[in-house]
Design a protein that fits this description.
- The protein is an alpha/beta fold.
- It folds into two domains: about 130 residues, Urease, subunit C, domain 1; about 300 residues, Metal-dependent hydrolases (TIM Barrel, Alpha-Beta Barrel), CATH 3.20.20.
- It has 17 helices and 15 strands.
- Strands 4, 5, 6, 7, 8, 9, 10, 11 and 12 form a nine-stranded parallel beta sheet that branches.
- Helix 6 runs parallel beside helix 7 and helix 13 packs across helix 15.
- It is globular and about 70 Å long.
- It binds guanine and fe (iii) ion.
- Fe (iii) ion binds next to strand 4.
- One of its GO terms (biological process) is guanine catabolic process.
- Belongs to the metallo-dependent hydrolases superfamily. ATZ/TRZ family.
- This is Guanine deaminase.
- Its cofactor is Zn(2+).
Length: about 475
């Protein structure tokens, strides 16, 4: 609920060896970053240290480092359809728009073009970690792993598994699905072997997976020291009814996954719009994370996820763009929509006491887009905020960059840079604002034009 702002601060990042990319020190009230580094490790000489001074460069502007976004749910393969969904809802949207596009990515040339584009687009929007669905195709999924690695984006890459209730042109047998999943996992872990690019097992959703397939995937995940798992849960009312008719022996949609061993600390569940209280308790007990996808939920009219209700129960919640159920690759746009959806829930909340409580603040939405996502993925010890020992996964934001959509007026700039002079002499001066207000202006009006640079694990991955 609060953003911690550090001024006059130096950050030391290790750029080689086993610690490569990790934050070594954070020194507030820094006078000289070079001295801070030498104080941290007296064996370092000036030749070992590269000082990059963003502070003096940005002294008169509203510029700051911000943790990179963690997109906990995005279908890389669906990016060509971003914005194309008409008035469809989930199940007809899948049939009409989604399956035909995904099937076309069996062609590696098509897949390469799409995957390159989506990785560049998310990076320039400040996403340092993305949790991707690809398609059922193993070779195209490996290609996606190579593209993420070459671009320097941290990624979890999942080959989609579907052996049931799927079109003839886009389906696999149970055996094929398990074997090609294992093939992709082995490729990413042993051949690509980039610590930033991890496999994630991806049963699409219960209707497109047999019980044997889901159990097989859970076994595969456990046998490799608990791999990450991702799927969709309780997105749309018709989907939920369909699941209960397909799995009548299960108590709930969440119980379908749980009975197959798929609910773990390393599991990310997209949507969770219509969870029952029992299902929420189950998700909480298993320690699985929720990926809230508010743009998607509004676009294909799935519903409004009760984020406050989930958070109040101790469930880890992150945000997902869910391209192309969601039309935007931007996590900032997704965070804005999360805030607005919470206001819609507040308007409908009959309990006056709770009305305020269900609203998400700017600070909370930004938390969900960064640390919330890291926690949902059970990776908060590696990234999501600026802490010693974490990876330096960072954006350099300039609220007033060239072409910026955010207008900061001269008297407002003084909120950000305390040394700036107030030059207004009217009897009724324009209202002064706080740093939090500048952040809010960026939150509501900013976009990729404010993302000047992006580093992942200390390596520059995007520069405007
Ligand atoms: N449920 C099953 N597949 C999908 C998908 O591709 N996107 C969304 N939003 N929901 C799904
Ligand atoms: Fe999705």
């Amino acid at each position: 609920g609060q953003v911690r702002i550090r001024t006059n601060t130096s950050i030391g990042v290790c750029l080689e060896g086993a610690q490569c990319g990790t934050i070594q020190f954070i020194k507030e009230d820094s006078e000289n970053p070079l001295e801070d580094a030498k104080e941290f490790d007296s064996s370092l000489t000036e030749n070992d240290i590269a000082v990059v001074d963003y502070y003096h460069q940005s002294l008169n502007s509203t510029s700051f480092f911000f943790p990179g976004y963690v997109d906990t749910h995005i279908h890389a393969s669906q990016y060509p359809n971003a914005g194309i969904f008409g008035s469809s809802t989930l199940l007809d949207w899948l049939e009409t728009y989604t399956f035909p596009l995904e099937a076309s990515l069996n062609d590696l040339e098509v897949a390469g073009v799409v995957y390159q584009k989506v990785v560049q687009r998310t990076l320039r929007n400040g996403t340092t970690t993305a949790t991707y669905f690809t398609t059922i195709d193993a070779e195209a999924t490996k290609l996606m792993g190579r593209i993420c690695s070459a671009a320097g984006q941290r990624a979890l890459v999942g080959k989609v598994c579907m052996d049931s209730c799927s079109p003839d042109y886009y389906v696999e047998s149970t055996q094929e699905s398990l074997e090609s999943t294992e093939d992709v996992v082995n490729y990413l872990q042993e051949e690509l072997a980039d610590p930033k690019v991890l496999p994630i097992l991806t049963p699409r959703f219960a209707p497109s997976c047999s019980r044997d397939l889901m159990k097989g995937l859970a076994t595969e995940a456990r046998s490799k020291g608990q791999l990450h798992i991702q799927t969709h849960l309780s997105e749309n009312v018709n989907e939920i009814e369909w699941v209960s008719s397909l799995f009548p022996e299960c108590e709930s949609y969440a119980d379908v996954y749980d009975s197959c061993g798929l609910l773990t600390k390393k599991t990310v569940l997209a949507h969770c719009v219509h969870l029952t209280p029992e299902e929420a308790r189950l998700v909480q007990r298993r320690g699985a994370g929720v990926s809230h996808c508010p743009i998607s939920n509004s676009s294909i009219t799935s519903g409004e996820c009760r984020v406050r209700w989930l958070l109040d129960q101790g469930i880890d919640v992150g945000l997902g763009t869910d391209v192309s159920g969601g039309h935007a690759c931007s996590m900032l746009a997704t965070a804005r929509q999360a805030l607005l959806v919470s206001r819609h829930l507040a308007m409908k909340e009959p309990d006056v006491e709770r009305k305020e409580h269900v609203k998400l603040s700017v600070e909370e939405a930004l938390y969900l887009a960064t640390m919330g996502g890291a926690r949902a993925l059970d990776m908060e010890s590696s990234f999501g905020s600026f802490e010693v020992g974490k990876q330096f996964d960072t954006q350099l934001i300039d609220v007033e960059s060239e072409g910026s959509n955010v207008d900061v007026f001269p008297w407002q700039r003084s909120a950000f840079v305390s040394s700036a002079k107030q030059s207004v002499s009217k009897t009724l001066p324009p209202p002064s604002i706080t740093v939090q207000d500048v952040l809010a202006k960026w939150f509501f009006n900013g976009d990729d034009r404010n993302v000047m640079k992006v580093w992942v694990g200390g390596k520059l991955a995007h520069s405007l």
